[in-house]
Design goal:
The chain has one domain: TIM Barrel, CATH 3.20.20. It has six helices and nine strands. It has a nine-stranded mixed beta sheet with strand order 3-1-2-4-5-6-7-8-9. Helix 1 runs parallel beside helix 2. The longest helix has 14 residues. The radius of gyration is 17 Å and the shape is globular. The termini are far apart. The protein binds S-adenosylmethionine (SAM), the ligand Nc1nc2[nH]cc(C(=O)O)c2c(=O)[nH]1, iron/sulfur cluster (SF4) and magnesium ion. S-adenosylmethionine binds next to strand 4, strand 5 and strand 7. This is Queuosine Biosynthesis QueE Radical SAM.
Length: about 210
């Protein structure tokens, strides 16, 4: 059965602040619901699914088309953990806009929907599905402490022999000076890795 509604926390048109597409105009769709429970999550307000948050796919697609007319170059589906929901129908409907569709995910659930770009941000305490590691275009590991660097090394080992390995990003935990230092030092010594800063937060925009 087609599911024509999804729980949405917010939609907004901003610049992609993180990873390989940093600085590009994007329309964000933030789905509600996450059970991964990262202690440092900057989006804890997206964890609960309120009864008032359910919106029709038609309504979401309409907003994406308005954003496209205002300059959005692609759509970012994020959350919460967007893959807690089936994204098949949403992607199918959004495809009418012809905008590329990007996904931000922790990768704990099976992949649903069709994407032009997948950002996997794997979590140490709940490792991602191998199918998502294989399908993703970039991996974004969040750095708070030394153990996170060991986790990044394990990702390097896993992806090294992929036919087309993903781009590799370290992103310091927001407001964690120790995390910035660890990430900069690691990238300096590991040229396959890039630094991702949450540029939207530095700029004070969404
Ligand atoms: C809020 S999550 C939503 C998508 C999905 N649940 C995930 O974790 O990838 C979006 C991105 O923000 C990152 N993130 C969350 N809290 C952060 C923080 N305090 N500092 C840096 N990055 C953070 C996540 O790792 C993820 O890459
Ligand atoms: N500007 C901006 N860029 C982002 N990239 C990923 C985000 C997210 O929360 O998933 C995000 C976000 O919340 N804002
Ligand atoms: S998986 Fe993403 S949304 Fe969920 S708690 Fe972790 S960072 Fe937050
Ligand atoms: Mg964010």
């Amino acid at each position: 059965m087609n599911k024509l509604i999804l729980p949405i926390v917010e939609t907004f048109h901003s610049l992609q602040g993180e990873g390989a597409h940093t600085g590009r105009s994007a329309f964000f769709i933030r789905l509600a619901g996450c059970s991964v429970a990262c202690s440092w999550c900057d989006t804890k307000y997206s964890w609960p699914i309120s009864t008032k948050s359910w919106r029709s796919l038609d309504n979401i697609v309409y907003e994406a088309i308005v954003a496209q007319q205002e300059g959005a170059a692609f759509i970012v589906i994020t959350g919460g953990e967007p893959l807690h929901h089936s994204l098949k129908d949403l992607c199918h409907r959004l495809a009418y806009s012809k905008l590329p569709i990007h996904l931000e995910t922790s990768g704990v659930d099976p992949l649903t929907g069709k994407f032009d770009w997948i950002t996997l941000s794997p979590k140490r305490h709940k490792p991602p599905k191998l199918e998502i590691l294989r399908a993703c275009n970039e991996v974004k590991v969040i750095i708070h402490e030394t153990t996170d660097l060991l986790f990044a090394n394990s990702i390097t080992r896993l992806t090294n022999d992929f036919v087309s390995p993903p781009l590799l990003y370290l992103q310091p935990g927001w407001d964690n000076i120790g995390g910035y230092k660890l990430a900069v030092d690691f990238v300096r010594r590991n040229p396959n890795w890039h630094l991702s800063l949450q540029t939207h937060k530095w700029l004070g925009v969404r």
